[in-house]
Amino acid sequence: MKNALILKEKIQRKDVTVAIVGLGYVGLPLAIGLSRAGSRVVGVDTDPQRVAALEAGQSYIRDIPAATLAPLVQAGRLTATTDYAATGAADAIIICVPTPSTRMKAPDLSYIEAACRAIIPHLHPGMVVVLQSTTYPGTTEELVRPLLEQSGLRAGRDFALAFSPERIDPGNPHFSAHNTPKVVGGIDPDSTEAAALLFGLLVPNEQIHRVSGPRAAEMCKLLENVFRSVNIALVNELATLCNRMGLDVWEVLDAAATKPFGFMPFYPGPGVGGHCIPVDPYYLSWKAREYDFYTRFIELAAEVNSTMPAYTVGKIAQALNRQGKPFQGARVLVLGAAFKRDIDDSRNSPAVEIMKLLRTRGAEVTYHDPHVAEVLFEEGGGGNGVMRSVPLTTELLATQDCVCLAVAHSTVDTGWIVKESRTLIDATGVTRFLDGDQSHVIRL
To answer: Which residue, 291, 332, 369, 414, is the most exposed by fewest CB within 10 angstroms?
Structure first.
C-alpha cells in the first residue's frame, strides 16, 4: 500500500496538491470542491481563455458563481495554466477531458491520449492518477496505463492508477462534487485505496464505494447513463403511441407515478442531449462488438431518442398545416437552445437539432435562450453560420406562426408565452400545470 500510504501522510499534514486536467463542466466543479476542502489545486486546460478567466476569478460555468471561485483564486488555493509542467508538483492528477464520439459513433479517445502523453514527462513516484472521463470498460488498463508507463515508471508499483466516474449533473442545485457518492476502482488494492483517500477529501468514507477494478468502475458509469437512455426512450415511444391512440401521455405518467413501488417516472421530451446520454450507449455497443456481443436493446433506445427532434418538427408541421401554412417561409420561434433546463450547455442539444431540421425545410427560424447566447450551424446542419438568441417580447411572439417550447427554463414565463402565442408546441409538458385556454397548445 505504498502509494496510498504516501498520499495518506500528505493528507494528514494537510499538504496535498491536486492537478485537474480539463476545466470544463466536470473539472472545474471538482477543482473548486477539492480546493475548498483544503487542497492546493492547479487546473490545466488547453484553452487559454478558460485559464485567463479562472486566474481572474471569473467563472465561465453558470452553476459556479464568481463569488465562490474568486476567494479560492485570491487565496492561492486554486490556480490555472496551459502548461502541463505544473502537474509535476502534484501529488495526484485527475483527468477530466472530453470523450466524444466520431460521426460513425465510435469512441474518440484522442483527448485522453493527448492528456496522458503530456503528463508522461512529469509523472513521478508516489503520484496518484485517476481517470474520470466517461469511457468504455478497459480504457484505463488498455490505453492509459501503457501510455503512462512509457515514462519508465510502473503503475501499481511506482504510481497509483484508478478510474472514478464523474457524476456531475449540470443545473442540479442539490447534488455536487461534495455530496455525491464516489465509485473508485484501481488497478490494484493500493491504487483503489489511494483513489479513495483522494476523494475522501470531498465525501465521507462511507460514501466511497470501492469496486474490483477500473473496468467495473467504467461499466458503472455507462450503466448509469444507459439506464436513463433506455427509460427515456421507453416513455418517448409511449408518447408517440399515446398520440396515435388519442391519449394524453402526461396524464398516464402522472397516474402511474402514484404507485409507491415498482415504478420510477421518466418523462418524454424532444430528445436527449449533453455529453453523456447521447454518446455513452455507443461507447458500450462499440466495445461489446469486441466480444461478439450486440447491444440491440441499448442501441434501439438510442435510436428512439435520436428520432425525437424529427418527431417534434412533425408536430410543428401539423400545427402549421392547421393554419394552411407551408414550411417554406414559416416563422418559427424555438424557446431554448441548451440541452436541458437552467444550464448554458448546448452540446448535442435536441433544441438545436430541431432548429437545424426547421432551417433545412425552409422555415424562418429564430430562438430565445437566456443562458445560450449563440449557436453555430456547420455545413450540412441547416446552413452555415451563427444564430444568436433574440429578446423575447410580445411583439416577437405575435409575429410567429408557431412557437416551440423545447427547453423549459425556470426564468421564462411559460404562462405569458401560452397567452401570447398563436400556436405553441410544448415538447416539455410544463403547460399541463397551467390554467386557462390551451386550445392552441399541442403537447408531445
So the answer is: 291
Least confident of 8-17, 207-216, 243-252, 259-268: 8-17
Which residues pair with residue 388 across a beta bridge?
374
39 contact partners, CB below 8 Å, separation of at least 6: 16, 17, 18, 77, 201
Q: For residues 104 and 48, give the distance between their C-alpha atoms in angstroms, rounded to a whole number.
A: 30
pLDDT at 178: 79
Going from the N-terminus, what domains does the chain have, and what CATH number goes with each? 2-214 (3.40.50.720), 308-444 (3.40.50.720)
Residues classed as catalytic: 276
Give the tens place of pLDDT for each residue, 128-142: 999 999 999 999 999
Q: What is the Cα–Cα distance from 23 to 37, expressed in whole angstroms?
A: 18
pTM value is 0.92
Q: Taking the CA atoms of 381, 385, 389 and 391 in sequence, report the sign of the dihedral they define.
A: negative
Kindly provide the b/e burial profile for residues 183-221, where b requires at least 16 CB atoms within 10 angstroms of the residue's own CB.
bbbbbbebbbbbbbbbbbbbbeeeebebbebbbebbbbb
CB count in 10 Å sphere of residue 103: 6
Helix (H/G/I), strand (E/B), else coil: 12 = helix
- Look at residue 377 in the predicted model and tell me its pLDDT: 83
Strands 182-186 and 208-210, by their bridges, are parallel
